[in-house]
Prior knowledge:
Chain B is of the alpha/beta class.
Amino acid sequence: MPSASDRTRGPGLTTLLRLAGLLVLAAAVLSFPSVAANPFILSVGVVIMSYAVLATGWNFVGGFTGYMSLGHAAYSGLGGYATALLIIESGLNPWLALCLGALLTALIAVPVGIASLRVRGASFVIVSIAFVLILQLVFQSWGEFTGGSNGLRVPRPFGPDVLRPEQHERFFYLHAAVLAIALLAWWLIDRSRFGIGLKAIREDEDKAQALGIPTFTYKLVAFVVSAFFTAIGGGLYALWFGYLDPIFQFSILIGSYMVLMSLLGGIRSLYGPLLGALVVGYSVEFFKNEYGDTQFHLVATGLLLGLVVLFMPDGVIPALAALLRRFRPQASSIREVTQAELAEQRESQESGPITQGAKR
Amino acid sequence: MTVPTGLRLTALAVLSGLVLAACISGGDDPGTEGGDDTITIGISLPLTGDFAEPGKGVQQGYEAWAAYTNANGGLLGRNVELTILDDQSSADRVAADYEKLINDDGVDLVFGPFSTRLVIPAAQVAQDYGFLFVEPAGAAPEVFAQGFDNLFYAAPAVADDHYDHLADAIEAMPAAERPTTAAYAAMDDPFAMGTAYGLKARLEAMGVTTVADEVYPPNTTDFSSIAAKIANSDADIMVGGTQYQDAVNLILALQQLNYQPRMTAFSTAPTNPEFPQAIGDKTEGILSPTGYTPEAAYPSNQEFVEFYTEEYGTAPGEDQANAWTTGQVVAAAVEAVECAEPEPECQQQLIDWLRDNEVETVVGPLSWDAEGRPQGAHLIQQYVDGRIRIVLPADQAEAELILDKPVW
Amino acid sequence: MSLFVQSLVLGILLGGLYALLAAGLTLYFGVMRVVMIAHSAFLILAAYLAWVFARETGLDPLFSMVATVPLFFVLGVAIQRLLIARLRPATLTMMSVLLTFSIALVIEGLLGYVFTGTQRRIQLPYGGADIEVAGVNVAVVKLIAFGLAALSLLALYLVLTRTRFGQALRATIQHPEAARLVGIDTERTAGYGFGIGLATAAVGGTALALDSTIYPSMHWHWIGPLMAIIVVGGLGSIPGAAIAAMLLGMGQALLQIPLSTTWAQTIFYVALFVTLMVRPQGFFGGRLAQRF
């Protein structure tokens, strides 16, 4: 876990335990294909893994800087189309096309980031939604190149002798590998100077700027890295699913799922988006089974998002962590607190007795 | 010693992951449902979302067909049972649905979904598992260019050929009386564009000049600018590649600009019973291709119309008929090769049989080429004296074709 | 030539509706720094209410505003007081986006649940009627919609400039702290501001229902252009939003002559990106817009 409180603790047993936990997590993920009862369950697993990759990709900008992009479907969609078009138009090796497609998408994200990050949050959100909508229009209209509303078949990376269940299995592992890389990158940034600067922006952009952090450059880099990982996720999904259609690729709903998953799990936590993806991915299947013939899934998504925003804006992991913390002695180490929490503490200080100082 | 929060949470994440995996895995084993005395048929349809309305029509057609089949001794002496899932009008869901139907529910056969946009991803899944895939709605030319060898379209003609009879009739007119200019407006949808551009290709070959050619996205609600361009072109014939509501909006917008074409044709919308009321009864002379009419004299059609009318209280429409046709086509293959199992050998036999044979259906006898295109053309209907009647081809006409459309 | 004039007239008529809706959207931002994603979802809700009203009573859908405008005002105040005000000030802009986004999803889902995804259109006796002026055909329904929008904008302008409440509202927009110091109850003013914003959606929705098909997921196609308009006009600036709406509405209609419908729609997004690149505070925005 990334929270600074852990770092002050000594190594040894804790590190060992944490490693063991990581191993168990990895083992659980890797053994899933053999546990899955049939190819359908396996395909649901691939979808959930894909969600986890996308949400983790989203969290590079959402989690570190606090800038909530509602339109990250733009980058997953671009990644998918770039991969497919590179294979179709230039006959590139699928895996090379995937990486190149993601790089191209990251390149496209640069001007978008410059336009939307020069000012504060409101414009960023507006541009994020607008960008998805414009891409949907363009990819729909530019039929000769993108296939338009006829859709685009994505050539398969594996030969015809690889049957569908086998494909699911391979793509499950591929998604898991990409997820591991994305998590590692997140973890590395989290521990770096760069990461500290980004978090400073999240908590108070003005103060961060006053401290000499090049806020604009930092935000832009985080945004482009996020676009890159989201594009990898989108490209991988396109290779697996094999069919792209603008109205489904550049959909607001997919972007909102990414936000919901990250927010639900906790945008400050390494595993937050992964946990959120598990919960959301599972509930999507569940709601469809239970309330299949209605638009209830939209209402459920909306309600869930609203409840999380109102009552658990830091996500499930921090909420549970706070719960757990109650059951153990008060830690005295420096802890990461949001500006809002600080403000609350200040307020309670003003009214209450002045014993709170130690808490900071 | 205290266990760090991070570790507890890792453990929690692992645990919840395992629990979820276990929950999802707890589904039924394939093939246990129904047993030997029923044939289960898996279908995914857009019951909610943007394609929900026609999706419901297809559902009614399927259900009516199943009820009729069971009332008449079933298939191979076994009852048929439909498993219908809702794909929420989404391509991701439609593929997941067929994945589920084939693997998790262990169905014996599958029928196709609705809308071209959903047929291709669904057909891919069916193809990968070797299933026969007969579909009631995927008429766009692209569907047949994907190299699917398991796909058959259960309707008389692909979208490009819908207007063939009308094109023939215009070609037969003396050159001086033919329209000289044409305007086209088509929804950016493979099916709708296919119909309009099929006719466009024929008219251009006859020397009819294209003076306006507009494509609009499916979500368009304001047609005034498109109408302005068409009205400005003052074309002799106006062709709409439309679904339902867009045609109504476009016609109202054209009326608002007081544009009066000599001939006008729209796909899909005019055959809808609500159409005359929606455009204020100014329907006279509007043409439309249709793949089905309840009045058709094909042997099985009468039974279909009677049965359906008894069940639902209204005569069936095109969506219902296409669904019923799908049932008829699959049933014919099943009866002929005497198997209905999910195993690839049986499915391949069904596919091979359909490739080489003709099937009698409520929309007429159907046969297919190697890519699954049906080999026929649509009837042309027209509003004559306030009622929609078949006007082309001449041997099936119920009324005389009106060549000069009255003012709307 | 006639096509040009015809398109220009259509653009002005369309721009009027955009102006009214963008005014509401920018008003929320002014009083609360909130990007109200659900604005167009409420627009569609109002359109559905007008459709239900016309279907059930057989009366003209315009009369539905007697109920929907006050209802939406109260709803707006309630959303501000009960939901938006609960959010932490430090993350208000971001979290309010997500919150209003979730409201939009709930509205869309419920509309789909109750009315299905079928496209609906009110059938009016004067639906296809037109007036011809100097060779230009103008649809009656579009004139009515434009008239509604213009009247509402005028009313909004008068409220903001001629009433005490309007002064308080503008003070709240310009400098909330200073407004509080001179004794303005900024909380309550913000609530009313939100209510007025949502009331514009009620008027706009009724106007929209006169001449357009409606369906639950339609609001996404409105929110994009509207958000582009308020950025181009300068966040929080009502005159800016109105002017930008008019210009972009006309631009869209005129661009449809050489381009296809789809490409013409991109004018909003091109304008959005150009504005943010060249003049991020918008073309009519003041100090407020610079920080957001």
